[in-house]
Amino acid sequence: MDPTASLTDGLDRMVERAMPILRRAAPGLMGAMLRQRCRTSDLVQSALADAVRSFPQFVGQNESDFVGWTMRIMERNSIDRRRRLLADKRAIDRDVGDGETLLASVTANTPSPGQIAIDREALARVARALRKLPFEQRQVLQLVALRGYSHAEVAQRLDRSEGACRVLLARARAALLVAMARQADDGARS
Length: 190
Known about the structure:
Elements (H helix, E strand, L loop, with lengths): L2 H35 L2 H14 L9 H34 L1 H11 L4 H19 L3 H12 L4 H8 L3 H28 L1
């Protein structure tokens, strides 16, 4: 059997299994500004395309590692898209003038009551999923995602190597996505 065929089949399987998880996570990564200008499917597709293109650099050992790796790619893509949008917005703001700029920034940064409710529901889902994670995974996610600690600071605080903390973080993100997916599936059945 051709070894490249089995590699391609394995990659196809991992992409198929990662896609629904990424679709569920994408809206939370995008933020309101990006959601107005980009579809979640665009973000998922670009992350998967980057993952397939970069697959030779993938060092994980299983599907969970692949999902976490692809999730990080999607997070970076989301951040890059937001930065580009903000850069474009700043360029437009310079051309518009002070009064109009102030009005545009106030209306653009004010979420609607519906968006506030959606954001609160999303936060509640994340909190429920976090509570289901093992303590160490929950801890590393809180230190990096909520408190903004660097990998070096987390390693020092947890008395682990940086590499071990990165692996723990990747596993925690993947486990969080799985927990959230299970919640969504449970909610759909109810």
